[in-house]
Design brief:
With 248 residues, the chain is mainly α. It has a 3-stranded antiparallel β-sheet with strand order 1-3-2. It is elongated.
């Protein structure tokens, strides 16, 4: 699930070109969210340049992107260190994402012109057929994000910006695993939302959209718990708490 709604990027480039800053960002995002970097660990630029075969300018843009999403902290003269996204934060962010996607579906029913609604419904049918055919979880999530981007495009620019921010923070690679390991996935909710969109039923479409995200919220939380992820306090949060206590 670029515009303000920030659909997943699939940039085209000539063969032999190196990764873009967006691709380095996504690669590091997955490494961090898969636990390959420990909280507090420093992301040293020379190591990242060598790993991704890019220059420092691209690495620095990628680190700024991750800092905007709260996955790293940039410290002057020291560099970037990894934060820890806790289980509570993930749960809360999916709660916000569910609400915002419900708004997007509601606005699509109210505001989408006929041509756009036809495109949304057609892509929804393609997604449901792909799920029945056993398409990969990553591809299914990509298709779903494209559809939600189309729906979000009917919202105000402020709403689109909020959706994009929460979406970036919750692009958990572990959600692909959750979707792959837990058939039939959220696709009954997709069918409900698709039917409500076709009927121009704002309440029904919003409920279907929220239920899709609630499903993913439960799966990501369950998998994080089973793997012991996100249970400890981040070094940055601990330091902030100590500073706040000393201020009293």
């Amino acid at each position: 699930m670029g515009t303000a709604a920030d659909p997943p990027d699939r940039p085209e480039r000539a063969r032999g070109d190196g990764p873009t800053a967006a691709e380095v960002t996504e690669g590091l995002r997955r490494q961090i969210q898969d636990g390959l970097w420990t909280p507090g660990e420093w992301l040293r630029e020379p190591r990242l340049c060598a790993e991704f075969q890019v220059g420092r300018s691209i690495v620095r843009r990628a680190l700024r992107n991750l800092a905007d999403d709260g996955l790293v902290v940039l410290e002057p003269h020291r560099g970037a260190s990894v934060t820890l996204t806790t289980l509570q934060e993930v749960f809360d962010l999916y709660e916000l994402r569910a609400a915002l996607y419900g708004v997007a579906a509601r606005f699509a029913c109210i505001r989408a012109p006929a041509a756009l609604m036809s495109e949304i419904l057609e892509k929804s049918d393609v997604l449901l057929a792909a799920s029945d055919a056993g398409e990969t979880a990553e591809e299914l999530i990509h298709q779903s994000e494209v559809i939600f981007s189309l729906m979000a495009g009917t919202a105000s620019l402020d709403a689109q910006a909020m959706i994009a921010a929460v979406r970036r923070k919750t692009r958990w690679h572990i959600s692909y695993k959750g979707l792959a390991l837990s058939p039939p996935g959220p696709f009954d909710h997709w069918r409900s939302m698709r039917a409500a969109l076709a009927a121009r039923d704002p309440a029904g479409a919003a409920e279907g959209a929220r239920n899709i995200l609630y499903y993913m919220q439960n799966e990501v939380s369950r998998l994080m718990l089973s793997r012991g992820l996100g249970m400890q306090e981040s070094p940055q949060s601990s330091a902030q708490r100590r500073r706040a206590a000393s201020a009293w």
